[in-house]
Amino acid sequence: MTVSMPQMGESVVEGTVERWLVAEGERVAKDQVLCEITTEKVDAEVVAPESGVVVKLLVPQGTTVAVGTELVVLDAQGAATRTEAPPAAAAPRAVETTPEPTRVSPVARRMAEERGIDVGSIAGSGVAGRVTKADVAAHAPAAAAPEAAARSAAGTLGDFLAKLRVPTHRVAPEDKVIPFTAIRRRIAEHMVVSKVVSPHVGAVAEVDLAKLAKLRERAKKEFERAHGFGLTYLPFAVAATVRALRDFPRMNSAVVGDAIVERAGIHIGIAVETERGLLVPVIKDADRLSLIGLAEAINVLAKRARDREISADELAGGTFTLTNPGREGNLYGFAVINQPQVGILRMGEVKKRAIVVEAGGEDTIAIHPMMYMALSYDHRIIDGATGNGFLFRVGKYLQAAEFEL
């Protein structure tokens, strides 16, 4: 029998064999880990579906191959013979680490993402209710022309990037060479593509958090006692962003060819720094969650990302992203848009500053906790009035501090 590169989420098309944990001729038990793999989104382990002997390792360590590629030949009878592997069609599928909430083919998922369609809203006609390409096309036939335009644009962009020539550094013997991991390579590709595809425009707002700081201070001890983790400013920022996205639906859009698709659902990506690089888990249907629900979702997703337990589907489907680099001198900065989204909001450090406030009809100097928020938006479809209006609205909701805990 053969064991193949597993499908780690429908949007993942390839994986890298990071490390083999078995050798040819070695006897293995059922569910024993054969190798560690890395995809663009998650790390995982491939296990033996049955007990047997390792006949042949088919993919060298460090090699990237497509999903479904045979990785290793096992002799389930226990004899390490150099026989030819059975046809791939007869091979059992590798065990997936997470269940799929909606069964959908990779082509159908990509088509749905390009058209801004939630695959969960499509009734699948395939085996076991699997959503097919035809199902997506039938769901939104009018999007066929924009999809074709998008494919053409993608091809043109690919040709352009392939022709780019950038200066290189001559490696000296004393230099330290660190090869790109699969995740770092994908991050690099996404950043370059985003800056080429989307004309980025930035806007900065200064937000007075005096009321919010008092609300958080009053609630944080009881909150941590009840929920087991600290109450940060991030869930408040997410809640304010969700409200502003309702007010400015264009900020919750995607560009599909020559069409603008305003997304029905609000799915907020939260940038999380991990030892492997930046990951962006997604809070699905964030507009349906309370502030406490948002805080719990952020805590769970961030922990899963840092512990390498995050699934590919938990990293997919975002419609808008927030990033919070944390403290240590972070004033403000402009983040790169996470394609195919059209905006990303970056939080600065909360610092006490002297500001002018009106008290009793007169101006006075007061010390308030302040924060800069920087919005990067796609100028193809977001004009200055919309971008600035959205950012102002987020700040207004934060300053009002009208949140229920």
Q: Helix count?
A: 8
What is the fourth-level CATH superfamily of the largest domain?
Chloramphenicol acetyltransferase-like domain
Tell the overall outline: globular
CATH class of the largest domain: Alpha Beta
What is the multimeric organization of the chains shown? single chain
Averaging pLDDT over every residue, what do you get? 84
Strand percentage lies at 15-25%
Kindly provide the radius of gyration, computed on alpha-carbon positions and rounded to a whole number of angstroms.
Answer: 25 Å
How many individual β-strands?
Answer: 19
The secondary-structure class comes to alpha+beta
In N-to-C order, the SSE pattern is EEEEEEEEHHHHEHHEEEEEEHEEEEH
Domain unit count:
3
Q: Give the helix level as a range of percent.
A: 25-40%
Distance between the termini: 55 Å
Under CATH, the topology of the largest domain can be stated as Chloramphenicol Acetyltransferase
CATH architecture of the largest domain: 2-Layer Sandwich
Main beta sheet, described? 7 strands, mixed
* Uncertain residue segments: 79-101, 142-151
